[in-house]
Amino acid sequence: MNIQILELIDGAQKAKGLTVIIDVFRAFTVECYLFDKGAAKVYPIGKLEDAFELKKENPSYVLFGERHGRKQEGCDYGNSPYQLLPGDFEGKTIIHTTSAGTQGIVNAVNATEIITGSLVNAKAVATYIKAKNPEDVSIVAMGLAGKESSEEDLLAAEYIKSLILGEEFDIDGRIAHLKDHGASKFFDPETQDVFPKEDYPLCVDYNKFSFILKVGKESDHLMITKENIE
């Protein structure tokens, strides 16, 4: 198995084989919590205007949308796992458009299969990949807006790779380091409306969920669904 770690939108475009699109802060962490709360499916959308159009056509869908971390006007939610926890998403269809994670999905045009990844389901992702045993695996750390490397996404990518290969990895030590090297926005009083401090522990609660999120197609739309991993 050839495993490569790539980064950013450029990395997503170069990805081949079974591809994992990583976004820890916060897109694919959010989606894991949504599916845990009973969401039926997620439509990952690249352009904000396309997300609004799909919402207009389907008013019952719940629209999650952010740019530069901030909830966009006209969206039902932003991109905060903490802020979604009180919501009722049982059986709901979600529209999700973000600066990094969903951009990775729509740009991974050469992948044979796409799944998403974050710390909260890292072990499930690795288990799935080991069971599939593909020739090529691309793990793409999407970083900040898909343009700048980020500590948390590289951490998740390296952790997933270590789990696939059965290598030692100091996940607790790396997360402790992350708090002061990449996660400061969650502890800044001036950014609590965008990055609430409660998001951080939810994002780094590694291996909380034993399912993966798979990207498929439904009519003209990419669609994410949950698959439980034994």
Describe the structure.
The protein has one domain (2-228): ComB-like (putative 2-phosphosulfolactate phosphatase). 33% of the residues lie in helices and 25% in strands. It has helices at residues 8-14, 27-36, 48-57, 81-84, 101-107, 122-132, 151-165, 171-178, 199-203, and strands spanning 2-7, 17-22, 41-44, 62-67, 70-71, 93-97, 111-117, 136-141, 211-218, 221-228. The strands form two sheets. Strands 1-8-2-7-9-10 form a six-stranded mixed β-sheet, with helices on both faces. Strands 3-6-4-5 form a four-stranded mixed β-sheet, sandwiched between helices. Helix 7 (151-165) runs antiparallel to helix 8. It is globular.
Task: Supply database-style keywords.
single chain, 230 residues, alpha/beta, putative 2-phosphosulfolactate phosphatase, six-stranded mixed sheet, 9 helices
Summarize the SSE layout with pairings.
Elements: E1 2-7, H1 8-14, E2 17-22, H2 27-36, E3 41-44, H3 48-57, E4 62-67, E5 70-71, H4 81-84, E6 93-97, H5 101-107, E7 111-117, H6 122-132, E8 136-141, H7 151-165, H8 171-178, H9 199-203, E9 211-218, E10 221-228
Parallel strand pairs: 1-8, 2-7, 2-8, 3-6, 4-6
Antiparallel strand pairs: 4-5, 7-9, 9-10
Helix pairs in contact: 1-5, 6-7, 7-8
Largest sheet: 6 strands, mixed
Query: What count of helical segments does DSSP give?
Result: 9
Going by CATH, the architecture would be: Alpha-Beta Complex
Number of domains: 1
What share of the residues lie within helices? 25-40%
Per CATH, what is the topology?
A: putative 2-phosphosulfolactate phosphatase
What is Rg? 16 Å
Helix vs. strand class: alpha/beta
**Overall 3D shape:** globular
Query: For the record, what CATH class applies?
Result: Alpha Beta
Strand content: 25-35%
Q: List low-confidence stretches.
A: none
Task: Going across the biggest sheet, name each strand in turn.
Answer: 1-8-2-7-9-10
